[in-house]
Amino acid sequence: MHLTNQLQHNQLQQVPGAMPKITYISNAGEEHTIDVSVGMTVMRAAIANNIPGIDADCGGSCACATCHVYVDPAWVERVKPADPTEADMLDFVLDRQPNSRLSCQLEVTAALDGFVVRTPASQH
Question: What is the pLDDT of residues 5-21, one digit of tens each?
């Protein structure tokens, strides 16, 4: 990321009271768009709002891979890449794709307003 883009990204992360909209699309095409507090993870927001398709069996500790999502292609370059622990856990998901991520590792920032993820057919 260029320095100018990084500075803009950092400024967007610090917008007080920001409530970015995140859209979850099920494997069947059902959409749920919710307002999410900055700092919350995509997984915690889904659980708090009863979004179907994200099980989160480990509660968000990056230990089970049951919060697997597909990041919409338009957003893949806008989120931090998976760290080594997440990358290892992604080896356990069904139907892993290049845009597969664990939603417990995706922290919501103001810059993610409009973020879109899709849930897989199954988490198990």
Answer: 343 444 444 455 669 99
Q: What is the DSSP letter of 41?
A: B
Q: How many domains does the chain have?
A: 1
66-94 per-position pLDDT tens digit: 999 999 999 999 999 999 999 999 999 99
Domain that holds residue 84: 3-118
pLDDT of residue 17: 65
* Domain assignment present for 53: yes
Give the count of beta carbons closer than 10 Å to the beta carbon of residue 14: 10
CATH code, 100: 3.10.20.30
Tokens of 113: 């307003």
DSSP labels, 47-95: HHTT-TT---TTSSSSSS-TTEEEE-GGGGGGSPPPPHHHHHHGGGSTT
| Dist CA 2 CA 109 (whole Å) | 18
